[in-house]
Structure of Stearoyl-CoA 9-desaturase:
Amino acid sequence: MFGLSVPGFLALPGFLKFGGRDPEPEVTVIGYDDVEALGRELDALRDEVVADLGAADREYIYRIIKAQRGFEVAGRGLMYLGFLPPFWLAGVGALSISKILDNMEIGHNVMHGQYDWMREPGLNSRVFEWDTVCPADQWKHSHNYMHHTYTNIVGRDRDIGYGILRMDEAQRWNPYYLGNPLYATALMFLFEWGVMLHDLEAENVIQGKRRWSDVKPLVRGWWRKAGRQVLKDYVLFPALTGPLFVSTLLGNATANVVRNVWAYSIIFCGHFPSGVQSFTEDETADETRGQWYLRQMLGSANITGSPLFHIMSGNLSHQIEHHLFPDIPAHRYPEMAPRVRELCERYDLPYNTGGFFRQIGTVWAKIFRFALPPSLVGRAPVSGVIVERRKTAA
């Protein structure tokens, strides 16, 4: 009746290990032929949706762009009444929504080439720019190429920890990682700047593995893009409101922080909750198409929610489907998800999904757990899938 309530993250198996043993994890084995059959079914699903792209998809992205611009105009306009707290809050809210839509449902998805088939210059992945400090070309390299090609391969996918966090058992612990929760919190509030610096590979610069000649083009890109963003949000628009300069500056800064926290949370929920699997370079060498698909499925996680929640997440709440089909318009993922889930059930594979608070809770549990030395926390039991990567002789 009067028992102590243990915080959820402390109650996770293996969080603090002072004796005893955790239960053995459940392991599923999938054969080579099944993996290839799965790949063919996913190819067929992709082809079916691509063949159906058309007017409805065009109208959808136009509606989102119209809404995004409307929220931005409203947010900027309300800042002229920022001396009244309700109007200031409304302006911050509208501007936050505008930036979230721009970055997630529009920018992220357009730069994946999801709307290149429309042949519209403003929605062309090669030239599109977004409302954030990271230059689009640098993001496309670190995200579209490095992350989506090497998803959850430790040592290749730099999104595992973003170069500053320990987020996987395979990352060797050292005392620096005691600050894991602090680094994660800083990254959350400054996420757009962390994304901008991602392609720098700061740890390699510190270790002397990257030269100034490698970094110089990146810095020039930052100066141009971040300079424009800072000028726009922290000088130009505040100046336009005259005596409300400081109020508008704070409003713009708050909207950027709201966008940063939201984007960080959605992205981390899709990549680091409990049950997401990581891989080694050796086991993923010479992958087949089916094995690539399977790695994307096992290395990602979804978030359940309402249609509005999915829009505000850029449909990255369907991270599994996004990793399987990164160049399919993301608003199609909700209709594809049940079929992907059915395939997982048929092939006895996990389909990692859950509510936002469940997923983000396990993410933060992992952040705290990996801050501590393995000798203290042990290894948490994690269910996994063993993939037969070579065809067995008959």
Summary: The two ends are 61 Å apart (CA to CA). The first helix runs from residue 8 to 11. The chain has one domain: 25-52+134-385.
